[in-house]
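new request in #modeling-help
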Amino acid sequence: MSLRAKCAIAGLGATRMGRNFDHSSAIGFAVEAVELALADAGLERTELDGLLVNPGVTWMTNPMASFDLQQAMGLVDLSLTATMNLGGATAGAMVMHAAQAIDAGMANVVACVFADAPLKPPRPESARKGGGSAAAYGFARGLEGAYGLFGVSAQYAFVARRYMHKFGATNDHLGAVAVAERQWANLNPAAQFHDQPLTLADYHNSRWIAEPFHLLDCCLVSNGGLCVIVTSAERARSLRKPPVYILGMGQGHPGGDPIETLVSGAPIAGRMAFKMAGIELSDIDLAEIYDCYTFTVMVTLEDYGFCGKGEGGPFVADGRIAPGGALPVNTGGGQLSSFYMWGMTPVCEAIIQVRGEGRERQVKKHDIALVSGNGGILSTHSTLVLGARA
Amino acid sequence: MPEIAKPVPAVTPQMVPFFEAARQGELKVQRCAECGALRFPAREICARCLSRKHDWVRVSGRGEVLSFNIMHQVYHPAFAAEVPYAVVMIKLEEGPAIVSNLLGVKPDQIRCGMPVEVVFEQVDDQVSLPKFRPRAAG
């Protein structure tokens, strides 16, 4: 039996993102995000019976972060919890786990939560680009430190360089992603780079991190928390906001060495999610694509089939992904220019767009949104297809 | 002022044969004793057939640059003076990939596909590190 449109996202809660020191740790941001999501949905805390948590890098010392959050919020008699980690693919995976559980009758109202607090006052660390999701999972290539290989950006750079060698993509192509996303961020008051424009020249002039990545190829760092609440479609229709129906779901984890395969999990996950949703690529109105790096957007879009393998460079550079273009991508500014809540960044923006709450950046036709999540270095992948109608 | 040492890889029990060979100027990788798959770095279990039996075999030391990056940020003080420097992934002729540095080539001259061969740099009396240098193709 298809899960298409059986469940919906009924609540969204996002704290202020970035240099936010309202809470001293991730769990504080998580609690706030859940409260905001409950209020958004018009639900009481006591109505939650499911709690799924994807802890950020500063929350990983708690092996059962979901239990800690349950206790912090005084939640009792839950019938579903899990602490989940597929890196950036977790947000999508939490939503699909919630939907499956609800459809199976094992829970009714499930909160899916991400939070992190990597920035510390009073001297916020200068952003160590590349984010935490891959850095924490140790890509054991043996002897890294002896050769000066440190950090996830350096490892991701190997994949990007091999891709550029094989397919002829350039930093102009990567820079086009950064520029387009900044244009969207300039329309989003909640974006960390809302007030700062970006040209391709600015991109090229930004300092190198690990070639071929400039600073502006890498996602930013944020404190904050984000919660989405999943319920049955019927329940969602009775609540405050227009339901965001979960039409399609899929995951893809290709294995092998990404430096050689140069492929994400999008082909596997996309096929599954589009089939469940009953859609084709041409039905997609907007795409929220996990963008730990500009490069990830390029590869993910081509892996979904928007263009042929290796054609992602020119595809993202012709203006179609920017405001006014034919395929709006990362319409809030993405992880490059709005905020970095791992996979919850694209999920959040998709919900806003599908509900029609995008204001100045609202995409005119917003019936069907594609949402991707990527973990590690093209290691894990989740796809959601969200829709305004069942 | 004393120089800060680069990180020296720990000689874990699994990797003892690798470092013993490296001290002799030989590059060795694990070979699955059941299916023959070569792998690096050391693992307990063959990812192809799940066998727990392996031996170590010498490889030619020849390969090509699979990929590379150029590190511009200082993550470790021992590398501060070298920034920007390149780190390479070498695809050995026999199949496995190994992280390393490429000697005698400026970072901006490195290209994917460059043919290379191994050399060894002694770090201390326990550890010699394989590094690579360009070789004539063929």
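bot summary: The interface with chain B takes residues 140-151, 154, 157-159, 161-162, 165-166, 207-212, 257, 259-260 of chain A (CB under 8 Å).
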